[in-house]
User: Fold these one by one.
Assistant:
Number 1:
Amino acid sequence: MVREDRTTWKANYFLKLIELFDEYPKCFLVGVDNVGSKQMQEIRQAMRGHAVILMGKNTMIRKAIRGHLSKNPALEKLLPYIVRNVGFVFTKEDLGEIRAKLLENKRGAPAKAGAIAPCDVKLPPQNTGMGPEKTSFFQALQIPTKIARGTIEILSEVHLIKKGEKVGASEAALLNMLGVTPFSYGLVVVQVYD
């Protein structure tokens, strides 16, 4: 299959976006930070028949909306929210049900070094099941531990990562070794257009 040239593709994208705004009375503007292609594919499959998901470049979305303002001036309220990774979920169904479906499709994710933490991460006092050779990880993070029956045990609850902070390499490595997936990512509703 031959790919159409860029100008044709852009023109078709503008038409598609405007058709969707005309056809569907309601839509969500959703943030898609940290959502992988596999997860996005699963979300699209779950929404099939209930909603249409459209992603695109912010400048193209803004240009299409500005060109359509004469017919639909209410769209202007969406313009300030088109920043970062965003997309549209168009629907004719109840917004509450669609929002619930979006929340169902959140997936747990491991902590990656350099990522911004969306929530606090605390480690409860527990037996880690790791051998004593891994104590250096815990010492580097100032986590109080003891060795009990040949495994490392965390003595007290530790506030490992605070919300909004960058995840360090050693914190990410420790959480991955413990098999903890502290973060969950999915489509986040930024704005509702009704």
Number 2:
Amino acid sequence: MVVPKLTMADMKMTLALGILFFKFFIISGSPPSPAISYSNLEYSIETTITPVFSTLGKQFRVVTNDTVVLPCEVVNAGNYVLAWKKGIAILTAGGTKVTPDKRIRLVDGYNLEIRDIQTKDAGNYVCHIATMEPREITHTVEILVPPRMSYGKEPREVDVKKGTSTTLDCKAEGNPVPKITWTRVNNILPSGEKSIESPTLSIELANRHHAGLYKCTASNGVGTPASSEINVKVLFPPEIELERAWVHSGEGYEAQLVCIVDAQPAAEVIWYKETLKLDTTERRIMETRGRRHTLVIRKVLFTDFGNYSCVAENSMGKTRQYLELSGRPNPAIFKSHPNGRSKDSYNISWAVNSYTSIEEFKLLFRKVPVHNDNVNYQYQHSKRPTRRQDNDTHGSHLNNQWARSDIWNDVVVPNSPTEQFTQQMSYLIRGLEPGTQYEAKVMAKNRFGWNQMSESFKFQTNSGASTNTKPAPSRLVFKL
């Protein structure tokens, strides 16, 4: 004889029926007659008052690790057997818990409590009354899962070469499906926006300004949003910015030449004088502070003046920038007011910074041309003394020099030796036209040579009557 193999579901159903027969035995006081069929038993029970549910099936949205109670309240339950099942699995039969899950129990009558709920608990739960025509209600449990990143908490790193493009991705789990929002730590996104909602973020034609920490945040309204960070490194050859391409100093003073280097990966920086690679000495120090690379020369010697360069190199390439250390004076800065008091003269003044005494100045001036966009800037020497021998002021008489307003007139102004760093000079220009605009430039010379021409300075004579007051003599003014 072949014994049929029972499944787990068959065994659970047999147990439920056994409990049903046991309850009938308790009620009647005697075991059911073998002649009584299951249908007759159900019929005899059915003849009593029909039980009805006082609760309706509903949907429950529960956050993981929380507790949910599924109600099953029956009016006129009498001796009818109630049961809870999920799918084909029987959880309870009558007052007996069939499932071995310790998180599940009956509370407050026949309500089903599920503690520490997990994603596996999602589904339909049925409360069943064992009548002739089974009655049941169904509760649907949806598990709400807070967002969780598919990556660890440590920032990921992404390397991208300059000029190429890349796409950052962010994956998160949760229920409902989380939405992804991108931001950038202490900066805006490459698109110029503060944030965008998308599972991916594209960086087109990457440059060094795109490097930084990007943050993706997943949120679904359940629990606390989750986030992950991506550190984007843009690989590019060194880029050098000069603090000053021309550096002024003097013998015995200190000089600093500065190169500001950006590179990824970090670059090695080497200093040269002309073609000679420089090493650290007692007078020469090479400092590095972040992006700032400084060549410090203490107690400058005459031989230290000249052309220098800083060379920065990494695995992406090499870059060089040139600097000059010079003893020549700094460019002049004009100090006089642009609106003169006199209609036919103007007292112009300027200042020059130089560690070495200025030997002489060269003042160039002219009437501002009406159309000077295409003028060839030339100047001519005026036939006049550079210093008057009498007690009159330093000055120039233009006479007929303004026949061509596009030609510069120049005056050489001698200077007295001084050890002051800032040296000022004033000069009275005579023979000007009333209410007319002029422009001037100045150069200065010390024993190292002429400096760079100053920027153009525009001034205007008074259009009113000339004053009778004799101008004060021009003089050297030293400023500490």
Number 3:
Amino acid sequence: MTASRFKDPDLVVVGGGPAGVMTGLLFARAGCRVTVLEKHADFFRDFRGDTVPRFTPRPWRS
């Protein structure tokens, strides 16, 4: 990705865990330009927000 992809987002979400990714997804679907920042290059770690309620995946459906 180029730096221009990150220029002037409407929203910057800090943290790419379950809550951060869902927040970014929902705002992007609402028309916002979103950048999600995550410091870890992989997901080999414990999440603090790893419990996802059963209704959460609904926004992922088309």
Number 4:
Amino acid sequence: MANTKNLGAALTQGATQGQLKMADVQHTHPPTFSFVADPLDADDWLRDIEAKLVLVCCDGTEKAAYAAYNLQGTAAAWWQSYKTLIPLDEPITWTVFKEGFRSAHVLSGLMEIKRREFLALKQGNQTFLEFLNQFNYLSQYATEEMLTEYRKVKLCRRRLNPELKHYEDFGGQGSPSQRECEGSARGLQAQMGGKKSHQ
């Protein structure tokens, strides 16, 4: 009898905790996803929902369940079908969800195109801030190249126009951080009159 009460209490507590976590997730106003108009929108949705689920400290299986809850229309139909392909004894983790979602909604070749776009990026006619925004946005597609702060700074600096990348004070001494480089480059651009520079 005591074991039955303990089991009932544990199930009730687990259900209550699940409801509380769902409420926490909903308070972040997670985006919904229904179909792909632009494959990059699907990838952006995946990143947005993951950031919100990390915020409320979801584990891998909770992330998958709550992300799936925010699928609608054809995306929800895809998920119902996709789940049947996963063995019953295999937990549906965030990694499983993410890989399945990307394979269905994000063209694999598109990620490589964006990675190459990042690797080919140069400041050109952009102001430093315009370039930096583009650099930071595209860097999400080149995670292997951005493993350390040092590599990120080196990549960023290499793509700047000559008058910025060869300036002695750029980024301070030693191995500057991304923030130090950004501050130095902004200052240099301001000294140059804030003009768009040309290669």
